[in-house]
Model the fold of this input.
Amino acid sequence: MITQGCCAPLAAEALTADQAVDLAKAFKALGDPVRLRLLSLITSAEGESCVCDLTAAFDLSGPTISHHLKVLREAGLVTSERRGTWVYYRPRSETLSQLSGLLATPGLASVS
Amino acid sequence: MITQGCCAPLAAEALTADQAVDLAKAFKALGDPVRLRLLSLITSAEGESCVCDLTAAFDLSGPTISHHLKVLREAGLVTSERRGTWVYYRPRSETLSQLSGLLATPGLASVS
DNA sequence: GGCCTATCTAGATAGATGTCGAATCAGTGG
DNA sequence: CCACTGATTCGACATCTATCTAGATAGGCC
Done:
């Protein structure tokens, strides 16, 4: 989970080593095509997605999908909730917008 | 390099497998504390950074820094230019803002 | 040309990661 | 209580990655 390096974009000031360790965990979680697509499915669904639907969208075993979801969960990118037999995942928009803000290039118009 | 999945945020629509592969490469490059800090140093510097300064900021060998810079370069996150003895790196803001846009949560106010 | 410095490439190695099958846990319904 | 289904955990294995040392390449300077 990201506890530091809250909001300032990269361009504003350099990260400390500790901030970088935290943030890198989140980006590393995004650095796999399967996980990125899982997050994309979860985020673009209305509110939440069932693991059963997510698993069906890939040509991978259940345990593998479960592993990737765990990585996303531990990176703070999604949360999960069990309702009866099924487990539902939803995005954590705080984390997503935090990462988004970090990569934002405020000087886009003034850089060049 | 990212060639597809140009701009739409994750929440808008799910990624295709191909888009996910492309984008995951960029995020994977960000998924290492050293590389994230390198990018942060490069981006927060005025315009560009010399490899010599970057290497000095870490407790790592030159070749290791060079390797990480190569990963960032191949992910399209930075470009390099040799001027005389030294090599300078600068950020590619197009790529950064593209990734930023992908993670942006347009419905931040309306999600909850 | 020859030497020095800055950077990159090559090869090696220890550790991390993605994937699977098998086993386990959680909940539903007979 | 038992069987069944959905999801996770466990253990194993092949592959990838971060790091190093040693060597190569590029440019400046005497």
User: Anything to note?
Assistant: The mean pLDDT of chain B is 90. The first strand of chain B starts at residue 49 and ends at 50.
